[in-house]
Specification:
- The chain has two domains: 1-80 and 157-175 and 192-242, P-loop containing nucleotide triphosphate hydrolases (Rossmann fold, 3-Layer(aba) Sandwich); 85-154, no CATH class.
- It is 38% helix and 25% strand.
- It is built from ten helices and ten strands.
- Strands 6-7-8-3-9-10 form a six-stranded mixed beta sheet, sandwiched between helices. A four-stranded antiparallel beta sheet has the order 2-1-4-5, covered by helices on one side.
- β9 (207-212) and β10 (215-221) form a beta hairpin.
- α3 (96-103) runs parallel beside α6.
- The longest helix has 16 residues, at 171-186.
Length: 242
């Protein structure tokens, strides 16, 4: 049986700079997998390539065994892969409700299913229901992050790509966001998580990959990565193993 998501020998170039140099990874149904790495390692590029926002120079992405490399981004969403990008990217001049409606664009003729998806989002993020008529640009940073994740759930994805969901948030909100990510996963959504907070990401995920300058340097279970001296030194702090 093939993996839910399979990335094989992925190569991405920005002009003369090679951003991904033969990256391979896989995900099974219902997993949380994290991708760690320093700034510029290629983490966001990887997510953008999977979601069809960047052309591939080599390799392939397969979802449920079918290739995605010539599939437009909107069709990738329709097939079941959704992307909450770094920086939230909410539509500031639209309301919370309007942002959520745009997240369901690929299902725009399925009004009943859209209504169900909206209620699921409001159950995860009650504050969004309170703010549903408010312009997204007037929300706090934490509320905008909730909206970005909620919008990505409106297409009822099988896989959710999350890019730095805790970036810029106060610690109390970071814990809340990670609790919600875990709940999303419990509801049956596999999650590929790029996250600066390596310790928190490894607590959440079952497995992880470490990207270094466009290549997979280390991969393994979260427990293995947490106990690896190289990972402790680079991402978890010197005292991680004590």
């Amino acid at each position: 049986m093939s993996a839910l998501l399979q990335v094989n020998d992925l190569r991405i170039r920005y002009g003369a700079r090679v951003a991904l140099k033969g990256v391979s990874l896989s995900m099974e149904e219902g997993e949380i997998v994290t991708v760690l790495g320093a700034n510029g390692a290629g983490k966001s590029t990887l997510l953008r390539a999977i979601s069809g926002l960047l052309p591939l120079q080599g390799g392939e992405v397969r979802f449920q065994g079918a290739p995605l490399h010539r599939v437009p981004a909107y069709d990738i969403v329709q097939r079941g892969i959704s992307h909450a990008p770094e920086g939230r990217r909410v539509f500031a001049t639209l309301t919370v409700d309007e942002n959520l409606t745009l997240g369901a664009f690929v299902r725009r003729n399925e009004k009943r299913e859209i209504a169900k998806a909206r209620e699921r989002v409001f159950a995860l993020f009650p504050i969004l229901k309170e703010r549903r008529r408010q312009l997204a640009g007037t929300l706090s940073g934490g509320e905008q992050q909730m909206l970005a994740i909620g919008r990505s759930l409106m297409s009822t994805p099988r896989i959710l790509l999350l890019d730095e969901p805790s970036l810029g948030l106060a610690p109390i909100l970071v814990h809340l966001i990670f609790d919600i990510i875990l709940e999303i996963n419990r509801q049956g959504v596999a999650i590929l998580l790029v996250e600066q907070n390596a310790r928190q990401a490894l607590e959440l995920a079952g497995r992880g990959y470490v990207l270094e300058i466009g290549r997979i340097a280390v991969e393994g279970s979260s427990e293995m990565l947490k106990s690896d001296p190289r990972i402790q030194e680079a991402y978890l702090g010197r005292s991680a193993g004590k």
